Amino acid sequence: MRSVLAQHEGPLLRYAARITRNLEQARDVVQDTFLRLCREHPERLNSHLTEWLFTVCRNRALDIVRKESRTRALTEIDLSTRESADPSPDVAAEKRESTCDVFRALDELPVNQQEVIRLKFQNDLSYREISRVTNLSVSNVGFLIHTGIKTLRQRVRALEGVSHED
Amino acid sequence: MKIDPNDPRLTAYALGELDAAERAEIEAWLKGDEAARREIETIRRAAGVLTEELKAEPCPELTPAQVAEIEQRFDPAAKTEIDFPWWRLIGWATAVGAAALMVALFLPALSATRNRAQRLALHTPSEQSAPVQQPPPPKLPLSQNQVESERNVVALQPSSPSPTPEAAPPLTRARETGIEAGIPPVQERTIISSGSAAAPSSYGERYYRLAAQSAAPAPGDLSTKSAGNLALNDGRNEWDQSASRRRRVRSQPESSGDEITIYRGTQSWTPPVPFDTESYPRLVENAFISVSQSPLSTFGLDVDTASYANIRRFLNQGSLPPRDAVRIEEMLNYFSYNYPAPKRNEPFSLYVEMAGCPWNPAHRLALIGLKARDVAPRKVQPMNLVFLIDVSGSMQPENKLPLIKQALRLLVEQLTARDHVAIVVYADNSRVVLPSTRGDDKEAILAAIDSLEAGGSTNGGAGIQSAYREATGNFIEGGVNRVILCTDGDFNVGITDQNDLVRLIQQQAKTGVFLSVLGFGMGNLKDSTMQKLADKGNGNYAYVDDLEEAQKVLVDQMRSTLVTVAKDVKLQIEFNPALVQSYRLIGYEKRMLRARDFNNDRKDAGEVGAGHTTTALYEIIPASESSPELHVEPLRYQPSPRAASNEELMTVKLRYKEPEGSTSKLLTASVKDTDASWRGTSSDFRFAASVAAFGMILRDSPYKGDADYDLVLGLARGACGHNDNGYRNEFISLVEKARSMAAE
To answer: DSSP state, B553?
Structure first.
């Protein structure tokens, strides 16, 4: 358990905080995710452990977001289609010319693209796993990642092959 | 041939996400397209940079307290649940840790076993140790010539005073009544109903009792049952006071709720459900319960019918059903009964009938029948239905997805412009096939139905979430809002944690979106999962084995299956120890409630749909009967029940909530036994007794007494009186099939 916790605690928190935009809530979400893990049967998870953790974490985080902003009717659908919110303060502080441009540019992507890109590159989930975590189809995940990378390449020189070849 | 640089498959290829066939296709293209090859390289490099940057993003941490709580949860010493922390065994488990775990795991199980054995020994030693002993010959042989009517139709009375003169007999105001004498036997079907239902107060309620016959007051009519507030009684004679003391003493088992927990204890015995076979939760039948030990019998109503359809499937395939697939209450409630309809503005009518027990002449059998208000077709609430359909590979057979499609086409014919229907499918992914569409746009709905195809594996969790989104997004205030899950019950990928599903479903039920579950197919049927999901979602569960059944569930009963007229419907029967020595509720094992849960509005129970009839049978051992089934020493400090000359056998209390209400309403009725024989019983009663006897035979129940196939057929053949679309005749043919199989 300790190794599961050590391996996934940070990434899950990072992921949950993106959804809740509140670290305390993200901590509650992740704690709850691990507590639920206690009740799982191992044979049902085996190779799906990471996917399961992210799925439960995401659902719990979305529950909280829904509850928090009922007045703004921020549903999951809204979350995936609305324009990205302002970058969080720590990210905004980054300078555009540094390699942290990546984060700045990422934050400017639509939220659903941000999410699948983070799941793919930050957390090493496959398209198929991402599709199950996010309830999107595999081809939709592929489209979002493809489009997201394309946009990032246009906005961040470090990602465009040309800058390296210069 | 050039590849469009906007083709997402380029990125998928670069990231190694394509399967072999697609990969080969892209590679063939890449050979002749240098620009595309460079593009792939660029994508890969960008992906590399992204990965590097993103992984370097700082990670927050849980607080030490949170980590401690999680770790404590995995600590075997602190753990009492059966689900054990598997990683301890495979990871850093020590021999000591494993040993501690074993102790933690088995101790509760052992003590549960011991507890149960003790309790059963108290009440029904015969079930556990010796073959069932038949009770001695009846001391009160029932005269076969008795031609008294045995029908008691008892009106439901709201607990607050609302005298309704009508043609009905006057209310007997209980607390003003002392001892009266001279009661004529009930002679006819009399339906007496009260005018309005009013909300009860929980304490100091005054119950009004309505004698089921003319103005003659009932003898010993001691109905001053102010729950927990006996001080209310005033101006009573001495007899009255001693009786109320007696009542208080008797009510002690109620407050502890001990007796009823027998069933709860055995429920938790259900072995973990394996995920690859037809699975039925273990069912331990209700035993006889001594009235002096526990005068209250409390259970939640059930209008599920799945067990009967499932039994039919087994019998039609030439095999007897597994014992635990036989749930007698679901068999009883599969059929409709001609109970009198409720009076205007009342949600229920209550029908009680009693006679000698066909399978045990020394015992009595009581039928409690409930009929819910019917909703006239024009008043049917608009419906917002979301079909959540399993299209995984296992749904391909004719009796699964193709049958669902046929069934849906039948339903579409019934929809009107006020209704909305949506279809969500799930397999590897969930997909909204038909966004919420007006019921009169039949072309669009039918086209969506035709497009359904099976393939892929299942993740029920994700699909359910999408379906609830469709349902809440098109919520009809005051209408029927329901997700209808059509599946063979195979949730085999992703979130298979029943607890998570159940939580989601319960949450949604609170917001007014209920869940119905329709089970299809065979071999992969997860009976227990599906029933549990439907229960938690304030819904019902039906097993659909052919188009006829689909017609019944989706079309004939559409209104009654879908329009809930009352929810959290609970029944509590109080038996009079002067007349009843012990009782046994037949079936409803999964619906047993603790006595105190009856008045607990947060404890949920069954839902009842428009026009539904619900039937429960009690086998009763009269007080005059000595019973080998109950080896309980007589209690020394209980006032002798013989002192009471009250002729009421039992009082039926019913609690329910309006579909959108949160506080319950109470209805009560008292019942007398008229010592009736089987002659002159209603065909409904005989048929219900037949169904129960059949169920007990299929379960090889220790309580089946003299019941055999001839008895079942004899009762049923004389009880096919009214037209019910041939369901009763079908029952008879099933019994005949079972008999010939059993004889082989």
So the answer is: I
User: What confidence score (pLDDT) does residue B496 get?
Assistant: 56
Helix, strand, coil percent values for chain B (each to nearest 5): 35, 20, 45
Query: How many Cβ atoms are within 10 Å of B77's Cβ, its own excluded?
Result: 11
Cα separation, B163 vs B143, in Å, equals: 39
Domain boundaries, chain B: 8-55, 64-123, 125-137+236-304+348-375+565-743, 380-556
B615 pLDDT higher than 90: yes
Cβ pair B605, B570 in contact under 8 A: yes
- Residue in B with minimal Cα distance to A157: B46
Please report, as a single letter, which amino acid is at residue B190: T
Residues of chain B positioned with their CB less than 8 A from the CB of A164: 45
Would you say residue B656 has pLDDT above 50?
A: yes
- Is residue A113 scored above 60 in pLDDT? yes
User: Which pLDDT score is estimated for B625?
Assistant: 63
d(CA B303, CA B194): 25
Q: Among all residues of chain A, which has the CA nearest to that of B457?
A: A132
**Bridge partners for B368 per DSSP:** B352, B616
Highest mean pLDDT range out of B416-430, B498-512, B577-591?
B577-591
Tokens of B631: 């080896």
Residue A116's SS3 state is helix
Question: B124 in the Ramachandran plot: left (φ > 0), alpha (ψ -120 to 50) or beta?
Answer: beta
Say how far apart CA A162 and CA B41 lie, in whole Å. 11
CB A145 to CB B9 under 8 A?
Answer: no
Beta-bridge partner residues of B354: B366
Q: Measure the CA angle with vertex B108, ends B104 and B113; round to 5°.
A: 145
- Please identify, in words, the CATH class of the domain defined by B380-556: alpha beta
Mean pLDDT of B533-559: 73
User: Which pLDDT score is estimated for B706?
Assistant: 92
At B616, the pLDDT band (50, 70, 90 cuts) reads very high
Query: In chain B, what residues touch A136 (CB-CB under 8 Å)?
Result: 429
- Residues of chain A with Cβ-Cβ distance to B49 below 8 Å are 102, 158-159
Q: Which of B41, B87, B431 would best serve as a mutation to test chain A binding (most A beta carbons within 10 A)?
A: B87
What distances in angstroms separate CA B408 from CA B352, B481, B539, B610, one per listed residue? 38, 17, 19, 21
**Residue in A3, A10, A59 closest to B59 by CB:** A10
Partners of residue B567 on adjacent β-strands: B657
The predicted complex's ipTM stands at 0.81
